[in-house]
Every structure is written in C-alpha cells, then in structure tokens.
C-alpha cells in the first residue's frame, strides 16, 4: 500500500511507494516499511534508511513513524488530518508541525515557523488551528505516558511481526 501526504491546498506533499499493512481496523492502521522509495513534491526521490512502523488513527490529528536505528527507537510524529484510505493509498493532510522523540524519551516540537507561514498562505481556518493545538497536547500526553505507539510492548510486537513478514 502507498502512503500519500497532501498539503491543505490539496497539492501532493510526499509519497511513500510501499508499506506493508500489518493491521487494519475501522480506526487504526499499522504498517511497516524498510528501504522504501519516497518521492517529494518537487520530484526529489530518496530511500528510507531503516525499518519503520507507521501508526495512523481515525480519531486523532496525528500519525507516528517509529524508526529503528542502532542506538534505539526514534519517533517522528506528523500533525495531520486523520487518515483516509482507498484502493490507491493511505492519505492524509500534513499540517507542518512535527514532534521528534528520541530514544531517551525527550522530545521537541518542530517546524512552528513553517506552520505559521503555511497557515497564513493556505488560510487554515481557526477551527483547524484549535484542533491542531489540542492534538499537539494530546500527542505530548501520549509520549509522556508511553501510550499507543510509544508503549514498549507496541514496539516489540509490531517490529517482530514486521520482521517475520519480511
């Protein structure tokens, strides 16, 4: 399955060529990929360097990429619309803000300047701004309380399952 991220104005932002779906329910999609071709909106292409588990939830305005590196698990969290799925891909709107979580549990909110520029340029409504602020707080709570994809058992189970499928 492909993953396609868009910007608020409907333009394609980034495409991951292939992700193995490990679990799909009405509310959650968990996938895995490794050495996957990624195409940027400007046509630039690159290949992911490490295995990753991706986590999407219908009820939250974020998705999480768990990357397995030699020194531990890093998380890259995109503030985004809830995902939609069709025959073509898993799709979402990327709203610029990201949270990077390090193996020691420390985390940083990234790209606030990019968010401000795009919010103005693409006219994000106040309702979207409020939803995103709420979801930044929600995501930080998940990180701090090791909930969802940040739980140690989540990582063990899904990394093991992905390895067994490849």
Automatic annotation (TrEMBL):
<dbReference type="InterPro" id="IPR007295">
    <property type="entry name" value="DUF402"/>
</dbReference>
<feature type="domain" description="DUF402">
    <location>
        <begin position="9"/>
        <end position="147"/>
    </location>
</feature>
<keyword id="KW-0460">Magnesium</keyword>
<protein>
    <submittedName>
        <fullName>Protein associated with RNAse G/E</fullName>
    </submittedName>
</protein>
<dbReference type="InterPro" id="IPR050212">
    <property type="entry name" value="Ntdp-like"/>
</dbReference>
<keyword id="KW-0378">Hydrolase</keyword>
<keyword id="KW-0479">Metal-binding</keyword>
<dbReference type="InterPro" id="IPR016882">
    <property type="entry name" value="SA1684"/>
</dbReference>
<dbReference type="Pfam" id="PF04167">
    <property type="entry name" value="DUF402"/>
</dbReference>
<dbReference type="InterPro" id="IPR035930">
    <property type="entry name" value="FomD-like_sf"/>
</dbReference>
């Amino acid at each position: 399955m492909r993953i396609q991220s868009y910007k608020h104005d409907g333009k394609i932002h980034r495409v991951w060529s292939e992700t193995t779906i490990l679990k799909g329910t009405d509310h959650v999609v968990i996938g895995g990929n490794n050495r996957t071709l990624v195409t940027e909106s400007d046509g630039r292409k690159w290949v992911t360097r490490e295995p990753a588990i991706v986590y999407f939830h219908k009820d939250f305005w974020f998705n999480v990429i768990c990357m397995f590196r030699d020194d531990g698990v890093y998380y890259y969290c995109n503030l985004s619309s809830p995902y939609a799925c069709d025959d073509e891909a898993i799709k979402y709107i990327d709203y610029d803000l990201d949270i990077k979580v390090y193996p020691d549990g420390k985390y940083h909110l990234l790209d606030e300047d990019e968010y401000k520029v795009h919010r103005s340029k693409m006219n994000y409504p106040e309702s979207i701004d409020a939803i995103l602020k709420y979801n930044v707080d929600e995501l930080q709570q998940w990180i701090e309380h090791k909930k969802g994809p940040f739980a140690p058992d989540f990582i063990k189970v899904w990394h093991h399952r992905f390895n067994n499928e490849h």
